[in-house]
Amino acid sequence: MTLRPSSYLVLGMLRLGVSSGYAIKQAADVSTRFFCPTSLAQVYPELAQLEREGLVRRGDDSQGGRVRHAYELTSKGESVLLRWLHSEHHAPTQVRDEGVLRLFFADALQAEDQRALVRRLRERARAAKAHMRAKILPLAEAAEKEGVGYPAVVARLGADSYAYAERWLARLEEDLDGDELSD
Amino acid sequence: MTLRPSSYLVLGMLRLGVSSGYAIKQAADVSTRFFCPTSLAQVYPELAQLEREGLVRRGDDSQGGRVRHAYELTSKGESVLLRWLHSEHHAPTQVRDEGVLRLFFADALQAEDQRALVRRLRERARAAKAHMRAKILPLAEAAEKEGVGYPAVVARLGADSYAYAERWLARLEEDLDGDELSD
DNA sequence: TATAGCATGTAATTAGTTACATGATTAA
DNA sequence: TTAATCATGTAACTAATTACATGCTATA
């Protein structure tokens, strides 16, 4: 019984009152997916495993012919979640970003194409920031009004980080333009 | 023949003059691993596949009884690398960060433990920034003096982003302390 | 002379994705 | 009535990691 980050994702969502596998995936798609992506084919087996281990309890929430399960944390599940929140250990953070990989090898490009690449990366950061502010943060702020504040904290950290990257890349673009003029 | 980011990592490293599988992994460990992690068990089969497809050529660089292969790009390999650098398409950026996942669910913690968690995240950002500046950036700056500038650009982007996260989390910590006093 | 590092590779395992399969309900 | 969404799950596949296996060379 080794729990992975995706196990804690499920436990945490259940604690926030998100009770079905489908709903967990929906919630994750507008919140945790930016730093812990998941899929339905991961969530359902995860719920089954957590139930076998006594960390969650499955109730029935079917309506008419449509089957729906309502899961909730057991007290054991709650204490496992709390223990994890208190613990220091975490799997090494990993990032996979093909855009930055391109930038790393950009010396192979002509000056003009280098600028185009940086411009694309900046535009990508701008779009991510805008999406975060317009689509993700408002949902988190609704939860904030209900007393659940950290999803909004994380959404602001995300949006602000994208904004920072956008500014940083804009400055790089200016530097590249400056070099060009002085050449 | 579909090339993945790790294929371009290998092609890019070869173009920079890093010629053996072992050396590619060594170089990646102090540069690209922050946004495109890889392992020897990925690099060796990748080189074999790229050779079968005529994108790289394998030469012999053995010394005495120690076998060593020196790979280099073919002209086809070089043009494939260039085409990728010019292209817009990229696999969706993905991040896995257990620390931020904890922060997302931090409402379950007591105020004091929330502050401790934020402090740990800030310390982690500080350490990453310091490592980037002390260990990674100097290596990239050595390459910069040889006319390869983008590894240093990427290292600075990384270090500055960690520094930004550190400041952001420090401000959050202050806010949490302020709330405590006013309670 | 033994340990660390150089060097290459494969095998076994794990994690994670997409595709498949099924069916109910709601809104256009 | 048809498409979108809700809802659950499995199967097949892909990507990626760790562990295994081997052997040379330089340094302490």
Description:
2 copies of one chain form a homodimer. With 183 residues, chain A is mostly helical. Chain A is built from 7 helices and 3 strands; from the N terminus they run H-H-H-E-E-H-E-H-H-H. Chain A has helices spanning 5-15, 21-29, 40-52, 75-86, 98-104, 111-145, 150-182, and strands spanning 56-60, 69-73, 94-96. A two-stranded antiparallel sheet of chain A has the order 1-2. Chain A is elongated, with a radius of gyration of 21 Å. At the A-B interface, helix 1, helix 4, strand 3, helix 5 and helix 6 of A face helix 1, helix 4, strand 3, helix 5 and helix 6 of B. Strand 3 of chain A pairs antiparallel with strand 3 (94-96) of chain B, so a sheet runs across the interface. The first copy, chain A, binds a DNA duplex (28 and 28 nucleotides) through helix 2 and helix 3.
Please specify the SSE layout and strand pairing.
Two copies of one chain form a homodimer.
Chain A: H1 5-15, H2 21-29, H3 40-52, E1 56-60, E2 69-73, H4 75-86, E3 94-96, H5 98-104, H6 111-145, H7 150-182
Antiparallel strand pairs in A: 1-2
Chain A binds a DNA duplex (28 and 28 nucleotides) through residues 4, 6, 20-23, 26, 37-42, 44-45, 48, 63-69.
